[in-house]
Design goal:
The protein is an alpha/beta fold. Helix content is about 45%, strand content about 15%. The longest helix has 30 residues. About 0% of the residues have low confidence.
Length: about 350
């Protein structure tokens, strides 16, 4: 990545934080030669990468075309949309019916002026994993900086920056780059306390990886299997794709997801259909070719290393009871909509 030349230096890494930096490196699968910039959130890290690319690439080379996958969340979209006021062009790369960005689709989006492509390694709503190695290879061929957003995947399996092929990797806590980039905030000192806290969180996540990749994956499969057995027509979205082990998106036929979400929350079962920093799940699914009526019946669930089988079975029971009740009430509406 030769695009970042002669940057203003980031705050120097303190020798007293050597152990903390080592833990953060292990968490992200980064190498000692990679450069780390602390960030208070993934949103800050993404904005840092976008601004640095504009300052060091677009202004100096004229390459002003920015791309993001159609899966991205608000920080990525808004940070690149803002560059349009500075003469840049921003476009989103369409997602396929499998929930993935294909190298062929990405290649069609490139122009001679493309400077930057950002793609989330795993979708926080559907759990679908992207073929980042293939996308990275294509970006390298075309001389495009490839930014991997990894907030949803790090700590959830053997995901390593050094093996992703990306030039930059962001997560909720920082930004790694293969070459040093300009700082996001000029004149800032090393945030010692925050880095110590980030390191502790990274070590905790690393200690739970085996549980997440094996036990949580088993519980997720148990959850999906029981739901499909008890609710006729219920199905897993992108169940045949490589997915994160802790996320499940399911469609509940003849049920409005917003009503289901509300009733489940009152019973202590929590899910999401996006919003806030994330895209709305119905919009995301429709972009992948899912029928509108089905997309409005979908919810996304997430599990943690602390989730137990007892909680899964109890949650399934509450979901089944609620869905059946709603289906009986809304059957007429959905039958009319399908007619």
């Amino acid at each position: 990545m030769e695009n970042f030349t002669n940057p203003t230096h980031n705050p120097p890494l303190s020798p007293s934080l050597e152990k903390e930096y080592e833990a953060i490196l292990r968490f992200a699968g980064a190498q000692a030669s990679h450069h780390f910039s602390f960030a208070h959130s993934s949103a800050e890290a993404v904005n840092h990468a976008v601004l640095a690319t504009y300052l060091e690439v677009s202004r100096k080379t004229g390459k002003n075309h920015f791309l993001a996958s159609g899966l991205e969340e608000a920080p990525a979209i808004l940070s690149m949309e803002r560059l349009q006021e500075l003469g840049c062009v921003f476009e989103m790369v369409p997602v396929g019916s499998d929930g993935m960005i294909s190298p062929e689709t990405l290649a069609e989006a490139f122009t001679p002026r493309t400077a930057f492509f950002l793609c989330s390694w795993g979708c926080g709503l559907t759990g679908v994993l992207q073929p980042v190695e293939e996308l990275a290879s294509l970006c390298q061929e075309r001389g495009v900086l490839f930014h991997v957003e990894a907030s949803h995947v790090l700590g959830k399996g053997p995901f390593r920056f050094s093996e992703s092929g990306g030039d930059l990797l962001s997560f909720s806590g920082g930004l790694f780059s293969k070459q040093e980039i300009p700082p996001f905030i000029l004149g800032a000192s090393t945030p010692v306390q925050e880095i110590e806290q980030l390191s502790a969180s990274c070590q905790k996540a690393l200690s739970e990886i085996d549980t997440v990749t094996m036990e949580v994956n088993r519980l997720r499969n148990l959850f999906e299997g029981r739901i499909q057995k008890e609710i006729v027509g219920a199905r897993v979205v992108f169940g045949d794709q490589k997915r994160l082990p802790h996320i499940s998106t399911m469609i509940f036929p003849m049920v409005h997801s917003d009503v289901l979400l509300y009733l489940l929350s009152r019973k202590g079962v929590y899910a999401t259909f996006g919003g806030g920093e994330r895209q709305h799940l119905p919009h995301l699914l429709q972009a992948c070719g899912v029928k509108k009526l089905d997309s409005l019946s979908a919810l996304s669930f997430a599990f943690t290393a602390k989730t137990t089988e007892e909680e899964i079975l109890e949650g399934v029971e509450k979901i089944v009871e609620t869905v059946h009740s709603l289906q009986n009430r809304s059957r007429l509406f959905f039958e009319e909509a399908l007619a």
